[in-house]
Every structure is written in C-alpha cells, then in structure tokens.
Amino acid sequence: MKKVVLLVTLIAFAFTASFATVTAPTVASSNGMVAAVNNYAAEVGAKILEMGGNAVDAAIAVSFALGVVEPYASGLGGEGYAVITMADGSKFAIDFRSAAPMAASYESLSELGLTLSKANYTPKGACVPGVLAGIKEAWLLGATLPLADLIQPAIDLARNGFIVDETFAQTTSDKYELVLENGFDFLNEGFVWEAGSVFTNPQLAETLERIKEEGIDTFYTGSLADEIEEFMIEVGGFMRKSDLEMYGAIVREPLHGTYRGYDLYVPHPPVSGPQFIAVLNTLENYNLPAMSWDDPLAVHIIQQALVLGDVDRRAYISDPEFYDLPYEAFMSKEYAKTRFMAIDLSQAFDPASYYDYQGNAYPFADGSSYEEVLLEALESVAANESGVEESPSTTHFSIVDKDGNAVAWTQTISSFFGTSVYFKGFFFNNEMYNFASSYRDWDIINLTGGMRPRTTICPTIIQKDGKVRWVIGTPGGGRIISTMVQLAVDLIDFNMPVDQAIRTPKFVGYTTYKDLRIEEGYPQTTLDFLEKVLGHQLNVYSYPDLFFGGPNLVSVEENGLMIGAGSIRRGGSASAPEF
Amino acid sequence: MKRLLIVLLIIGVVSVGFAADGTEQGCILEEPVAVTSAGQSPGALQFTIVAKMIKLEYTFEKLLSVETVDISQFKTLVLVVGASGKGLGAANIDIEAEILRVKSLAEAAEESGVKVVICNLEGESRRGPSSDRIVTELAPFADAYFVKADADLDGFFTSFSEEAGVPLATFEKTVDLKDVLAEYFCK
Fold this sequence. Notes:
Chain A: Belongs to the gamma-glutamyltransferase family. The complex is a heterodimer of chains A (579) and B (187). Chain A is of the alpha+beta class and 579 residues long. By secondary structure, chain B is α/β, with parallel strands linked by helices. Chain B has helices at 2-21, 43-53, 85-90, 95-112, 129-138, 156-164, 177-184, and strands at residues 33-38, 58-60, 76-81, 115-120, 144-148, 168-171. The A-B interface holds A 1, 169, 173-174, 176-177, 180, 189-192, 194-195 and B 2, 41-42, 45-46, 49, 84, 86, 122-123, 125, 174-175.
C-alpha cells in the first residue's frame, strides 16, 4: 500500500512539475531555457522560470535539485563556480570552490601515517564545501524569488522521490564497494539502486528543510555547522566549525577573452578559464573554418594546442589568493602566438617531452609583443605536474531567461561520491586530492589551510555584440577543457547547432595522457592519418563515452529563439517554460 | 499482518520461479560457502549482504584463487557472474585471466566434491558478451543457478539448466535472493 501511495505521489509530482514546461533532450523556445544533466533538475529550473523567476532564481533551484537527483556528482557537500551575465550588462563570477581546512597539512597527514592519496576516500579528504555560500551570493546578486521557493522543489524531490535512471544506477554500481563502506544509508537497503526504482532521500529533505527554515548560514555558523564539527571529530576529519565560519564565496568580474569576434566570459583561477581562453587564442591563428571537424589536421592542431594549454595550466593556475601568477599574460593574444609557433603541423609532440614545451608567460605580463619577448629570449619556468587522474564526475547546467539573463554553473564533489562519507543525506567532496600529492618547493598547488585547490571546470558565457549567444560548460575531469575547446570550435568555426556540437565525437589533449584518446566516429582515414603521418598514438573509445564529459548547452539565435540541448553522454535534458 | 502478506508474496514469486523450471528442491547445498566474483562487478559484494541477512557461513574474496585457498575446506563455491570493465581494471586483471581464475576454482571444486553455484545478482545489466562468456565457460561445473529473473528473459540460463539437468532458481529483486538461499541451505 505504501508503495502504491508513493507511486501515485511520484506521478502527481512529475505531472505537476511538467504542467507548464516542455522537457526533452533538445528543446527550442523563446520563453527561457534550462539545460542540465538530469530531466528532473532541468524541469525544476524551467518551472521556476515559468513562475516568473529569472535565470539566477532558476540556477539556484537547479543547483539544489541536482544535489538530490545526482547526489553522487554534486550537492551540499560540494562546491563549484558560476558565471552570470545579466541583461543590464552586469557580470559576475562566483568562486565557491572548496577550501582546505586549516588543520590539513602534509605534516598532519604524515603523523597519522597517511598521504593525500590514502586520505582521499576518508573524512580527511574533504575540503570546506562552498556550494551553499555560492548560492547565497548568487541569490543576493540577482535573484528575485524568496530562497525558500527555490529550495522547495529539491525538498519535494528528496521527499517524494524520483525514478532512478541508467546513469544513477551505473554510477552507484561502479562505486558500490566504497559506498557500502562509508555511505550505507545511501544504498537501497545495502544494495545498488537499479534503473527504474524509486529513490527517496528523507535525510536530505530534512537537511534542506532546515536550511529553508534557518537560512544558509546555519551550514556555516549555525546549528548545522555545530553538527558538522561534531561529525568530523567523531569520524576523524579535519574540518571544524571555525573552517566553515571563515569560508565565503568570492565574487569577481568574470575574465574576458575573445575568439573570432565573440566575447567569452570565463572563471578566474583556480578554475580553468585562462586555459580555455589561451587554447582558443592559439587556435585563432589557424584557419580552422576552412577545415571540417573530422579533418585530421584540425584534430592535430586542436589536440596539440590543448597539450600546450595543459602544460601551461600547471604553471600558471592556482588559487590567486595564495599565488601571484601571470594568468592574464597566459591568456593574452601575444603569448598565444608563441604557442602557435610551437606546434609542428607535420609531427605530434613526443609525449615523453611534453614539459619541454612549457612556455614562459611572465614577460607578457607588461603587454610586450611576441616579437619583443622572443627576441629577448627569456628562460622558461619549470613545469609541474600533480599527476591527478580526475574522474568524469561533476555536473554543469546552462540557463538563459526570456530577458537575456544567463547563468553558466558547474558544481561538483570531485570524484563520483566524493569522499563517499555520507552525512545528513549528502556526500562530502574529496577535493583535497586536487592538491599536490606531496610538498614540493616549486609547486603552486601545495596543500595549505584555507587554500582552494586547482580544477579544470570552466562554466562559460559567450556573447556576440553584447548579447548572449551560447552558455556552455561540461563535467569531465581532465577532459573538460578539451571538450570545451571543441564545443567552441564546433559552434563558432564549424557553425554547428548545439545538439550537433554535443553529439560530435570528442578527443583529449592532456599531459597526463600520453596517447590521443578519441571517441569512435571519426573516419578511418582521419585515424590512420593521425597515427601514421602525424605520429599520434591512438586510444579509441566507444561512442558515446561519459569519459569525454557531459555538456549541457543553450544557444540564443538571432531571432531570440533559445535552443537547449542535454548531454547524450549522461542522459541530459533541456527544459523550457511554456507560459 | 501486512509484513506477513509481503513475505508470502515474495515466497510465492520465488516459488513460481522454481515451479516454472521444474527444479524445486530443498537443502541441496551446505555451508561453509566460498564466495567470489566472476568478472569483478559489485554483484559478489551484494551477495554477501544477502548472505549476512540469513546468517550464512561464508568467506568472501573478490580474487579468490586456487593458489591462495584450499577450496576443499568449503562445501559450496558461489561464483557471482558480472563482467565489469571498471572492476577488472581496478583489480588489475584482464578478462582472460579472470576466466582462467574462476575456471580453475570451479575445476578444483568439482574435483573436491564442492558444489558450484553460478549466480547472477545484477540482472540484465550483466548480460553482455563478456558476462555471457564467463557463464558459458563455467556452465560445465554448475550444480545450480541463482539468477535475477530479468537476466533470463531470453532463456539463456534456463537452457544451461535444462541441458545439464541442474536447478535454476530465479528471483525478482536482489533482496529476494535470501529466500532462495534459505531454501537451498535450509536456513
């Protein structure tokens, strides 16, 4: 009987949620658009737009909802970054990356016989979560609806449940052993959640209710913070209430770059906005529009530019509050010319020597031209590699409302299930692992209390003549910038619609990978050329593969029509209000 | 009352599975039980959750092998089939080596008079070519099959069971396996 009631409630909720919205893998509308990795979450955003909320309202509701429907990828224990452009011209970049607790250090780990690697799936692997602080800043900056209204859909989803999809089931199955050990309450009476079953999360519903009643501050300075400290002391984590109290999201102007006449608004370090712009700046020197997406030379050029961008990322991107690095020079057009010169059109880099191609962006910080710099022939800086193999977790959503306000929002708990440490219905992130594995004098990502670890996420808004053209972003760990660059090139150089840009097979240029990882779907001639003529070692993945990320995009056409597309690699959806 | 009704319903479903296969039997297996994965999916670990529910005496090792264990100390060997690329990768073993490992175990079990159970706990999702190949390789050693019903929609396990004349017990939900175990182990 209980099950029948649950099913009826579920159907009723699904009906209510979809009453005035349309949701599908690809949707067109002039009323606003939400593209997210999950149909329930996308629909929540569209419903908020339908209620009269703006893109920021919808983004907050989607962020909460994703923490319910994809608890393994993001949520209250996680963090992220958002780029917002408002129709009035104001622009915001909200850094809600997590920060290392003050007690976390290589020494404290060592005293316990631990390393960062060994602590990864333990409470000690968790950094201070930032997602709620980010939501608070977003709400203060641009929301129009009460926060309680934006939390409520997530509470309903957690309480009434939703139907588990293939991604949910597969992800749970993949990490079953870990979750069984640390997050038993998440499981289905100890078993994996199967596709088609109904998942409810009463614990999370209760936590969200408390946030709704007591406000977001309860997580950082109130009773929830007390309980987090109590829990962390009990399970041996580093995090304390004092860490939560000193944490805050940081609001800046987004970084700005251009690509073939388009304006790109991207995140600051420690997120990978500068790397994304730097790679596109390099590619701008090539006539890619004269090629096609499957031209082996285009693949080669893009992949090599990505490798150079990644080598440089490791030298120039870290927490700007802790390191003064020339990331603006790294993303300058002049510096890009030197990277353009480094690519051999007839031969791939030797993967064993990737770090020989480390560039020196410092001389470009004063605006020098590449001719001046190269003539002076300055010495290069040392390379560094954290060697972190990142999982395809994380989640990204894109939103544009009918007035032209836009939000690109990426949130994560790092690996799928984060530390796998489960508390009050959510998982704590394992971002600590994104610091260098051990202390190195020359490194820029050494574990330091209060510091935010580096990451590859890159939510981006692309404008043309001051108007939003595309909102893009993707999960995918070390593949994120590769997928982002290919999306930008596919949209701008190859004039693809958003759904086609998502579908097009992807490849990776990343220093950790010594082979060229590429999705099935390229002509055999292209693959042969890359391997036999250009010297790439190919590693062909089946198509589609979540390894290459799960972008969810929105485009705004010249006539104002918005097209949303969800990721085919992770069951994403677009949803629009019907009004 | 409501609980009793649910239990009766579950038993009914399981019993229908037996009756349909014409292999209704009781107490054909004995403890202690050795449990291992055949393909490194999470199914074997889930088997242990069910085993705990009915207090089955078991030893579980994901990579149990004839080199590390004397199989004759057990009365039953349960091979939980499910090929997982990620699981195999995490265990640093390829599919060929995995098949060799579980076949050697099954051979040793047969030689020692230890009963061999082939189990599919994850249903249709573990019916890919690699999982099917593992089942095919192990079939000559099977004394019983415990299979989630949706893994046998095409009669794949039924045909092995009928050909060899060994029982096949199907169950609808993972947790229902406990009724099958209770029946076969007289718990």
